[in-house]
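Quarterly update from the structural biology core.
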Amino acid sequence: MGAPGTGEDGMTRHFHEELEQIKEKVLKLGSITEAMVENAVASLVDQDSRLAEETIAADQRADHLEVEIDEACIRLLALFQPAAGDLRFVTTAMKVSTDLERMADQAVNISQRAIELNEEPQLKPYIDIPIMSQLAQKMLRECLDAFVRRDAELAREVIEADNKVDALKNQVFRELLTFMMEDPRTIARAIRLLLVSRHLERVADHATNIAEMVVFLVEGKNIRHVTPQEQGH
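Predicted structure, tokenized:
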């Protein structure tokens, strides 16, 4: 099957142009997803249900972009049959876009809970949840930076940051459990807030997935389901 460009140099140039476009699309999807997470939590903290609705609507853009990235990667694989590192990069880009799209889905879930919670008096000041959101967004940004720069060290920092998000989720759980035990009327609101913290934890988990893929991309080492001790790090 022929490819655009004349001769080997033209093919190589065209391949790298296509590769750059895929990178740009992945970063764009990351940017949309990060804004969705930020706006979803803001819609809860500021009791702004219109912002929550806008965040839910933005999910279509994320979905379309994920499909575009997949199609671009498949086209690249078919046309150029890249070898070794480039092959790993293209297949990783497809997986990264899937994780980003799932993060966008979590932002939709948070927005839906926000709309429900905004109908009732606020149960408690939202302190830990915005902090969780900021940490998860930072993980999202840094795992994408690590992917584009092929930076395994930064990827490992993202993986370690996941512990902070987990600790905050546990803190939210303990606090909300106290509310529910002391006053059963708070149960419905507390459960929705627990779900919000769970959705944020999932965003951080997807960022961790991407970071683990980056380590594989750079080092050819699969560290998923492996303890830090076993990683030799």
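Residues 11-231 form a domain with the Methane Monooxygenase Hydroxylase; Chain G, domain 1 fold (CATH 1.20.58.220).
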